[in-house]
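Researcher: Here's a chain I'd like modeled. Treat it as a single chain, no partners, no ligands.
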Amino acid sequence: MSVHNHKKDKKPVNCMIITVSDTRTSETDKSGNLMFDLLNENNHKIKMRDIVTDDKKKISELIKNGAENPKIDAILINGGTGISHRDVTYETVQSLLEKELSGFGELFRMLSYQEDIGSAAIMSRAIAGVYKHTAIFSTPGSSGAVKLAMNRLILPELNHVVGEIKKDIKE
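Model: Modeled as a single isolated chain. Structure tokens:
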């Protein structure tokens, strides 16, 4: 199937949203809410959603639980991708990935540089890949970063990425 045919295939993708933050609550989780709204607007299904502190073990457990759930096709994570001591999302996600989509981080930083934050884009550690037949996308936690990643990279390719991951799996 061609790239263009994949883009026409708009079956709902079953998603999990994880917000990584030491301060956010369900009431103040603007980026998680933005992910939720954008997925809904594009007819995808949010099957699980959680907020977790910047803790490798807790983040890893949530990702593993999501990936082992047959109802989850993609896990979208926001937050914890910076360079401060507490930011551990990148290392946690990278250690789990079986296949990395290096172009995701590269393109995200390029778009951030061009459209939003200029040279500060070098501090973004956005990452994506595959873990246990599940697409993983990890973005910075700012609403601007989430909006950029969702609208320019994730939503245009979500069906295609999940389709490629699932196409050879025997159910």
